[in-house]
Amino acid sequence: MPCLMLIRQFFDTNEGEMSVQQYFYHQYHMELKYPKLPLATERKGTSGFNFYPLEVLMIERGQRVDNRRLAGQLVQAADNFITCEAKVLSAPEIKYKTDSLQPDRSGPMVSWRLNPRIQFLRPATVTSVSVAVFDRAMTDVQALEFFQALARGGRARGMSVQDNCAKVVQLPSEVDEITEEHFR
User: Fold this and answer.
1) Does residue 48 form part of some domain?
2) 97 inside domain
3) Which InterPro entries does this UniProt record tie to the protein (predicted)?
4) CB-CB contact of 159 with 125 (8 Å)
């Protein structure tokens, strides 16, 4: 179905013909901010469609839809981004045990390569780690290899990281309760 705009889509109600914008105001006392945005449509059996303003819809946290599926529904990601004024803040000085790193104040720190001989100011002791992998993005073995590389880097800089302290947990991204359970 082609993209429809709120101001152009009308349907019959008990009160007469009404636009989606008018319906939301009449039914929910909601003044829509973006009446020129396209509508999302939902097929309603053989009787037609339901129409929803995009501004009232929410994407579920962690929901992933591939571009082929979007293209099949005539939806695509925009190439033109919204622009706004911003201020780039200088990176702060980073203090280590015997040294500090002062990034170039003329702009952002593009690359930060820590000298392997530099020790952390107050190195942590790590006794237990959960490595969360969402939506089977990698195998348990790959997740453990990642953690072991991270632990080696920490040890080289003074951290105490116990061997075999990592537990890999495979989680679906949309289930908040399960995620919270593993990080209590």
Assistant:
1) no
2) yes
3) PAZ_dom, PAZ_dom_sf
4) yes
Number of domains observed in the structure of the chain: 2
The answer to whether residues 165 and 132 belong to one domain is: yes
With contact defined as beta carbons under 8 Å apart, do 36 and 73 qualify? no
One-letter amino acid at 123 equals P
Q: Give Cβ neighbours of residue 39 (< 8 Å, ≥ 6 apart).
A: 3, 4, 5, 6, 9, 20, 51, 52, 53, 54
Are the C-beta atoms of 44 and 52 separated by less than 8 Å? no
Please state the φ and ψ torsions of residue 174, each to the nearest 5 degrees. -90, 0
**51 strand-pairing partners:** 41
Q: What ranges make up the beta strands (E) of the chain?
A: 10-13, 16-19, 39-43, 49-53, 94-95, 100-101, 125-126, 129-134, 160-161, 166-171
Query: How many other CB atoms sit within 10 Å of the CB of residue 85?
Result: 4
- The tens digit of pLDDT for each residue in 115-168 reads 777 898 999 999 999 999 988 889 999 999 999 999 998 999 899 999 899 999
pLDDT for residue 2: 44
Closest CA to 3 of 26, 15, 20, 22: 20
> Where among 73, 100, 118 does a domain terminate?
118
